[in-house]
Amino acid sequence: MKQNGLICNKVKNTLIQAATCFRKDQKEAYNNAINKETNPRAKWVMENLLENAIAAELNKRPLCDDTGIPHLFLEIGKNKQVDGELLESIYKGVAEGLRELPGRPMAIKGDTVQRLDQSGGLDTDPGALMPAPIVIKPIVEEELRLHILMQGGGPEIRGKTYRVFHQHKLSVIIDEIVSWALQEAGKLGCTPCVPAIGIGRSHFEAASLMIEAMVHGDFSKQSELEREITLRVNESNVGPLGLGGQTTALATFLRVGPQRASGVRIVCLRLCCCMEPRVASVSL
Amino acid sequence: MVTTLKTIYTPITEDMVKDLEVGEMIMISGYIYTGRDAVLPKVVSLIKNNKLQQSGIELNGSVIFHTAVSPAGVGPTSSNKYEIESNIPTLSEAGVKLHLGKGSISKDTIASLNKYNSVYAVIPPVTALLSSKIKSQAVAAFPEEGMEALHLLEVDDFPAIIAVAHGKSIY
Predict the structure, then answer these.
(1) Taking all residues of chain B, what is their mean pLDDT, rounded to a whole number?
(2) What is the ipTM for the molecules in this complex?
(3) Is B78 in contact with A189 (Cβ distance < 8 A)?
(4) Mean pLDDT of all residues in chain A?
(5) Distances (CA, A) of A226 to A156, A200, A221, B96
(6) Does A102 sit behind a cis peptide bond, omega within 30 degrees of 0 on the bond before it?
(7) Which residue stretches of chain A have pLDDT < 70?
C-alpha cells in the first residue's frame, strides 16, 4: 500500500510538471527562434510565450487554460512487471494531479447520447477527466518509465490520420505531410506549431507512433527529414498566432515504425500548438 | 527589443478606436467581459429583446475576451467559431469596442466592425502570465453556464495585437 502511495505521488507530480513546464530543449528552441525572427510582431508573440513558460514554472500554474487530456506512455524493462494494482495507482495519481494543477474541468457527464451532444453537462471535478488508453512498450533498460502528455483540443481539431500511396518514393509521403501541415497551420491559431508525425501500418499504429514521437522528440536533435518538414512549413509565412513571420514551426517530431508490404503508408499528423509537447517523464 | 506599447484603458471611447491601427501591439487595462460560444448568443438575445439594460451588463466602450474562466485560468478560443463570430456585429452595434480572441475572421465581420467603429485583437495564449494580471473576477450574467458564464475581470496590461481595424485585416 505504501509503495502504491509513492507511485501515485510520483504520477501526480509528473502530470503537474507536464502541464506547467517547458522542457530545456523547448526553451532553447524558443530563444533561438526569437533571435532569428525578423518580424517584430512574431518576435513579440514568442517573447510572451517564453515569459508565460517562465511564469508557469515559477508559480506552478498551467501553461494554457486548455490543460488537455492526459495521455500515458509506459515503457517496461524485461524484468519489470505491470499489474492491475500499478495501473490503478497510476490512474489515481493522474486524478490527483488534475485536481492539484488544477486542470480545467472537462469531463462530459452522461450516457452515450449525452456525452455526444454534451447535454449532460460537465463534471466540476477536474479529476473526473479520464486519461486516454495507455500505450505500453518494451524497452531494453531495466526500468519502468512513465511519460505523461497533456493533449490540447486545438491540435486535435487540426490533426489527421490518413493513407498515402507512396509510389515507391519518399518525396511523395513528405510532400503529402507538408501539404496537410500547410492546410492546417494557418487555422491552428496557436502557432508556432510542432508537427508530430507517426507513420505505420494501421491507423492505431500511426497514432501511437505519433505519441511516441512527442515523447522522444528533441528540439535540439533533428533528423534530416524533420529539418526538411520544418523548413518547408516555415516557408508558409504563417508565423506565430498567424500574424506572419518565419517561425510557423519550431521543429518536427517524426517516428517511423514497421511498414506494410504494399503501396500504402498510414500517416498520423498532429500539429502540436505553441505550448506543446507538454510532456514529463518519471521512473516508477 | 525595447518597444513602447500603447495602453488601452477601459471603457474605450470612439476616438480611442479611431487611433488604433492594424498590427499595433497594445496593453489592455481595466474591466473586461469574457464570453464564448455558450454565453454570447444569450447576451445577443438580451440585446434583441431590449433586456440588456435590466441585466446590468454595460456594453458601451467594453471589451469582450473570447475565453472561459476556469480554475486553470483564461486563454483565447478561436473567434471564428460560428456562435462567437456571428454575434460580433450585434455586440459591436450595442457598444463593444474591442473583441479579443484568436484566429482570422471573415470579410463580412471585418466590414461590420468597421461599420460600428469596433476592432478585433488577438491575444497570445499565455494563461500563466494572464493569471498574474487578473486583479479581480466575478460572474456578470448567466451563472448556469459555469466557466462559460459571462464574467467581468479587472485586468492589468493584457498583451494584444490589433488584427482588424477600419476595414483592414492583418490576415
Answers:
(1) 95
(2) 0.89
(3) yes
(4) 95
(5) 21, 17, 9, 45
(6) yes
(7) 1-3
Rounded to whole angstroms, how far apart are CA atoms A78 and B115?
A: 68
Q: How far apart are CA B121 and CA A206, in angstroms?
A: 38
B102 contacts A190? CB cut-off 8 A: yes
Per-domain boundaries in chain A: 2-283
Q: Which of A45, A51, A189 sits opposite B103 (nearest CB)?
A: A189
Alpha-carbon distance values, A79 to A136, A212, B77 (Å): 15, 22, 46
Rounded to whole angstroms, the Cα distance separating B132 from B129 reads: 5
Fill in the amino acid letter for A224.
E
Q: Are strands B6-9 and B25-34 parallel, antiparallel or unpaired?
A: parallel
Distance CA A152, CA A35 (A): 27
C-alpha cell at A4: 502504491
Which pLDDT score is estimated for A201? 98
Best A20, A31, A52, A119 member to test B by mutation, with max B CBs in 10 Å, is: A52
Residue A239 and residue A247: Cα distance in Å, rounded? 5
pLDDT, residue B2, reads: 45
Q: What is the DSSP string of A31-43?
A: HHHHHH---HHHH
Q: Is-above-0.90 flag for pTM? A: yes
Give the pLDDT confidence of B78-132 residue by residue, as tens digits.
999 999 999 999 999 999 999 999 988 999 999 999 999 999 999 999 999 999 9
